Amino acid sequence: MGRVPKVTRADALAALRNPLAFIAARWTPEPRTVRRAALSALVMSVLIVVTGGAVRLTGSGLGCPTWPKCTDDSLTSTAEMGVHGAIEFGNRMLTYVLCAAVGWAIIAARSRKPYRRGLVRLGWAQFWIVMSNAILGGIVVLVGLNPYTVAAHFVATSALIAVATVMWQRAGEGDGEPRPLVGKAVRQLVWFMIAAAVLLILVGTVVTGAGPHAGDSNEVERMPVDWETVSKLHAVLAWIVVTLTFALWFVLKAVDAPKGPLHRTRELFLILLAQGVIGYVQYFTDLPEVLVGLHMLGSAVMWIWVLRVALSLRERPEVLADVPGPAAEASLTKA
């Protein structure tokens, strides 16, 4: 083992003033390390969807009846609260793991050489979404699982997944100007697909807010819409997304597009078919909890692949000239 460098008082003060700059000055991660860090944040953002669904589907939404503490007298769940308290408190603790993954992505992006401001900003965007969504989650508990706040909580998590997906993609690209790989008409078709996918997710939150899984065993307010009608609208939107995906694949084949967009589109089509099968089975079997949980996981995966299809339609080469980091920029300004 090499000798551990001695940390001086000046080093300690510098680390306190700007810990990210202190780490970046002493560590340069490999590009694959940065991409893995971005991927870890994305995986955790999907996992928090799954565990949040488990809280709801087990009726543990009010297992910790207050926030930020679990009870008025205890920060953690107690034995008297039973399994529901343990599930809800466990989901809260997983938020700290998500914060750690996002923090790791920020540190890795900040330490990369050359410095990439856009990549760091994507990391910080995730951090602020996580913080605001944690507060929103507390509001959800304090208002007794109001379905509109629950829907907003899920939409915010979908936004987190979107930013994490973009960061993961950008971590494997350069900072050059994006060059489209397909024509404008194809890109417009993909924008229609993204819009339909967003509507699909939003209507899905209404299906949940009006459906029988209220998140708690007690009487909880539901959205005042007919659940079966909104479920059918959700199915129609799903078929629209499937149709647009198939049309995109057909057009990409016709214009002899690169393999990347073709592969991502085919993968999305298969994900949508699997998600559709789960959706119809759960509808006709009175919404068993396991299938509803799988459908929530499928929703997150579907959203990631919709974005991956869009991001695969262009390429961003490496920039030949190094982009100066904050320290270098400051020295140039003084000069």
What does this molecule look like?
By secondary structure, the protein is mostly helical. 71% of the residues lie in helices and 1% in strands. The chain contains 11 helices and 2 strands, in the order ααααααβααααβα. It has helices at residues 9-17, 19-26, 31-57, 82-111, 117-142, 147-171, 184-210, 227-254, 259-284, 289-311, 326-334, and strands at residues 179-180, 314-315. Helix 3 runs antiparallel to helix 6 and helix 6 packs across helix 10. Residues 327-335 have low confidence and may be disordered.
Secondary structure layout plus pairing:
Layout: H1 9-17, H2 19-26, H3 31-57, H4 82-111, H5 117-142, H6 147-171, E1 179-180, H7 184-210, H8 227-254, H9 259-284, H10 289-311, E2 314-315, H11 326-334
Antiparallel strand pairs: 1-2
Helix pairs in contact: 1-2, 2-4, 3-4, 3-6, 3-10, 4-5, 5-6, 6-7, 6-10, 7-8, 7-10, 8-9, 9-10
The first-to-last residue Cα distance is: 40 Å
What is the tally of beta strands?
Answer: 2
Uncertain segments: 327-335
* SSE string, helices as H and strands as E: HHHHHHEHHHHEH
Q: Let me know the largest β-sheet.
A: 2 strands, antiparallel
From the structure provided, what is the oligomeric state, counting identical versus distinct chains? single chain
Query: Rg from C-alpha positions?
Result: 23 Å
**In order across it, which strands form the biggest sheet?**
1-2
Number of helices: 11
| Mean pLDDT score | 89
Strand content: under 5%
Principal-axes shape call: flat
User: Approximately how much helix is present in the residues?
Assistant: over 70%
The computed structural class is mainly alpha
